[in-house]
Amino acid sequence: MYYTHLKIVIGIVLACAFVVYVGYQGRFFLVGPTLTLREPSVPLQESRAITVRGTVAHAVLITVNGYPIDTDLDGNFAYSLVLPDGYSILTVSARDRYGRERTETRSLFLALGSATTTNQ
User: Fold this and answer.
1) When you count CB atoms within 10 A of the terminal residue's CB, does the N or C end of the chain come out lower?
2) 40 preceded by cis ω (within 30°)?
3) Nearest-CA neighbor of 78 among 56, 104, 101?
4) Same domain, 42 and 80
């Protein structure tokens, strides 16, 4: 009888360990890709050439305005972009291997020759 109870307890412990392991390994399937866009951080741009910088995790495809880009081993990316005159929209997307997608959108305005004022 003692061995029967011991087998049941061991079976329950192993089943719980299996459920925890599957849940831990499945977190990437549940969460999807992460995308953090660091630059540009302000909408008003004073230079036509900008660099889009950010970080992704768990993504197989990263695009900037529809163009695929590469990342380093840590998931960091940098992409040079030339802005048109006036208003434009920047779209950065990351897609994981299951097809889930995260998108960051920024509205940018190119103001060439805009002067900054200071109170003196």
Assistant:
1) C
2) yes
3) 56
4) yes
- 53 with 22, same domain: the answer is no
SS3 assignment, position 22: helix
Q: Which CATH number covers residue 63?
A: 2.60.40.10
Which token pair is 50?
């900008």
pLDDT tens string, the chain, 120 residues long: the values are 667 777 788 888 888 888 888 777 766 666 788 889 998 888 888 888 889 999 998 888 999 998 999 999 898 999 998 988 888 999 999 998 888 899 999 998 988 765 454 444
Which amino acid belongs to residue 43? P
Instruction: Residue 65: give the domain boundaries.
Output: 32-110
Query: Quick one: residue 63, left, alpha or beta (phi over 0 = left, psi -120 to 50 = alpha)?
Result: beta
25 and 39: one domain?
no
Co-location of 64 and 21 in the same domain: no
Q: What's the longest Cα–Cα distance across the chain?
A: 90
Give me Rg for the CA atoms of the chain: 24
d(CA 103, CA 80): 18
